[in-house]
Amino acid sequence: MCSIAGSYWFNDKGNDEGLLNDQVQRAFTMLHKRGPDEFSFVNVRNNCVMGGNRLIIRGSKNDGSLPFKHNKNILYYNGEIYNYQKWNPGASSDGEVILPLYEELGWKAFLELDGEFALSIWDDKKEQLILARDLFGTKPIYFSINNERILWASSASAINEMEKHSFCTSTKGPTYKHSYAVQEPYTSYNGIWLIPPGHFLVVNKNGVQLRCYNLWQEHRSISTDLTEVFLSLEQSLVSRMDYKGVIGIPMSAGIDSGIIAFMADKLGVKYHIFSIIEIMGEKTDESENILKRIDRLRNVSDVTLLKCNEDEYELALEEMFLPQYYDSEKFDNGNILMHTVFNAMNKAGIRVAIDGSGGDELFHGYNFREDFKPLNEWPNLWKQNNYYYSLFTTLLDYTSKSDRAGAYFSIESRYPYQNFKLMKAASKLKSTNVLKWPLREFLLQQVNYGPSLDIDRNGKFGFSIKNRNKEQMIHDMKEAWCRANNLTEMPNLKPKKFPFKIGMII
After folding, report:
1. This model's pTM is above 0.85
2. Which end of the chain is more exposed for a tag (fewer CB within 10 A), N or C?
3. Residue 169 covered by a domain
4. Beta-carbon count within 10 A of 425 CB
């Protein structure tokens, strides 16, 4: 995990006074925890500065040092590319392959990258900047634009540090029905937006264009063969477990995280289980089933059973709304629980976590899926397909909590279920024909889990904050947000309209 930031002015505004340099350096005061091991920035042109910092996961400080350069082109990126050896078997860093692949294929290179990424490329030949986000929107890239310049960063707060923006409230803009979440591409900062998944910005002196490089076309065939699904998932899991240190696995009683743990067990990698079994003095609905799963693991390096008590609750409230942490997430118990898990991982020295987000979206696991439909703003091509519509509207919401918590504690989160090949295989399975739990039982058998338990067939209940009802928790979070931003109440301002049309294919 790393972070990126930069500033580009459309006119020939000079950098003699160090304005652009100063903007980028201020941004990285907010981004330090996302990449504490290395920092650099370059003056690409008199009107453009780009930079990044790095959390070293693979190799040493000398391997993959930022920025990457090739034929006068320059790259800063946040993320991890898992199939990099396919393009360069001798590469010491995954980032080495991006620029040569881009020079060969142009924007089509983004379709060839298996991984999570948000990247900035200076194309010297075309004298333009490319800002791109991965197919699933796993890694964030925010931007702010006006007639004079465009600012970008891995955090909305970092952009706000470059140039101040007013706050707006989620309830006045596009929201999710089920929560107080701001719907992508909007944020809680007025005039700061996210690049949508599978899109990239082209920036030059003529202005900015938003382009879509993939719109998720559904496969019309109906398959009953689950082998392709498993092989795709296995390949994705193996590639994301390629790490020499101990992997942190946040494990619930659900099958998605269970499969990750059992695959780690099967491969013999070093892994550490983190599970919440008690919240506010009461055992979770999942606690007994979590322990049953752990009993079946043979090669686990360590197990940490967590209790989210009053102190952890208050700590999360104080930290999760700090500018270094918060970017416009929803207000719910998931934020607090993810803070608890990643805080424990950080104390245990974990640098890489494997997250189960995406399994329910791929395999139709939510019986409340309709509640996740956003009110507006998503293109009709996505809305017409319930499968992909559900995938995006739920996945972006849940993945953001893991990314934000991981970033705050300098931990890289990896998402094996968010893999293009796996998604194509899963899309062939119709939800009316393939039920979630039989599918999961099949996958568990493939990783040598053994005879299935009742939990495998019946599913999990989910976590909850027992003595905090939703209304009280929302109240507590609003107060914490106001304290963090030196405000007496939440702002009542509707956000500026997103300046581009989403889904415009190249």
Report:
1. yes
2. C
3. yes
4. 22
